[in-house]
């Protein structure tokens, strides 16, 4: 089949676009507003941007009312947000926090989740989640879109603190992904969880493999150069 989004019909019962870009990590973002009210919401358009320094983004379309989502306004107003890993064990809580509710409603309470204090930023962490990133807000890129919900706000933040549960590691010091079972969005109403992994190394370049690992220091050592400060 062939179609041009917004120009020609796809003639399918559901739009296939979101089912083609898969799986998508979930940005389970906790924020706090200027009045001290907590907010927690999942975003299926989430990703790390780079690793030195570590920077992440989450992208939020508009509310059904056409207004910006609380996570965006809170991050911009306070300069902070937290990413919490969404896992299979927490899937129902993640789904409950996706509801569109007024700013004075606490999604932590809706989902029966425990607030854990962060070390540097003010937004709380989801205590039941095994991994958290405390983030300092960097900037928002606003993208135009069609309809009430189409416009998007792409929020960038620098990771300034990382929390990982002690029991989240394998004996070799790597994160035990199969134990944690992070969930990811597919299309339609579908999700997936990580239940299998395989490894590959780029042939002929240990420096590039260090990049896959996310280690600027190791890459610099291999190349015989100092890592940038």
Helix share bin: 10-25%
Note the gap between the termini: 50 Å
CATH architecture designation of the largest domain: Roll
Number of domains: 2
Helix and strand element order: HEEEEEHEHHEEEEHEEHH
Low-pLDDT stretches are: none
What's the CATH H-level superfamily name of the largest domain? Electron Transport, Fmn-binding Protein, Chain A
What is the molecular shape? globular
- Largest beta-sheet details: 7 strands, antiparallel
Report on this structure:
With 229 residues, this protein is α+β, with helices and mostly antiparallel strands. The chain has 2 domains: 21-185, Electron Transport, Fmn-binding Protein, Chain A (Pnp Oxidase, Chain A, Roll), CATH 2.30.110.10; 201-229, no CATH class. 19% of the residues lie in helices and 30% in strands. It contains 7 helices and 12 strands. The chain has helices spanning 17-20, 70-78, 91-96, 107-110, 177-180, 206-213, 216-223, and strands at residues 24-25, 27-32, 38-43, 46-51, 54-61, 80-84, 115-116, 125-126, 131-143, 152-164, 183-185, 191-193. The strands form 3 sheets. It has a 7-stranded antiparallel sheet, covered by helices on one side. α6 (206-213) packs antiparallel against α7 (216-223). The longest helix has 9 residues, at 70-78. The protein is globular and about 55 Å long. The mean pLDDT is 94.
């Amino acid at each position: 089949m062939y179609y041009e989004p917004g120009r020609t019909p796809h003639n399918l019962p559901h739009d296939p676009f979101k089912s083609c870009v898969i799986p998508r990590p979930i940005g389970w973002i906790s924020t706090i507003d200027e009045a001290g009210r907590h907010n927690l919401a999942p975003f299926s358009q989430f990703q790390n941007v780079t690793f030195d320094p570590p920077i992440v983004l989450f992208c939020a379309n508009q509310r059904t009312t056409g207004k910006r989502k609380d996570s965006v306004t809170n991050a911009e107003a306070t300069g902070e947000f937290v990413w919490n890993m969404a896992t299979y064990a927490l899937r129902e809580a993640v789904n409950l926090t996706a509801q569109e509710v007024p700013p004075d409603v606490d999604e932590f309470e809706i989902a029966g989740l425990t607030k854990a204090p962060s070390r540097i930023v003010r937004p709380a962490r989801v205590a039941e989640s095994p991994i958290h990133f405390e983030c300092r807000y960097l900037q928002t890129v606003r993208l135009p879109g069609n309809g009430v919900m189409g416009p998007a706000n792409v929020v960038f933040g620098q990771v300034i603190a990382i929390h990982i549960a002690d029991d989240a590691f394998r004996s070799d010091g790597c994160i035990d992904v199969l134990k944690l079972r992070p969930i990811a969005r597919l299309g339609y109403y579908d999700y997936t969880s990580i239940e299998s992994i395989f490894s590959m190394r780029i042939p002929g370049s240990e420096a590039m493999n260090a990049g896959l690992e996310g280690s600027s220091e190791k890459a610099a050592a291999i190349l015989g150069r100092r890592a940038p400060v």
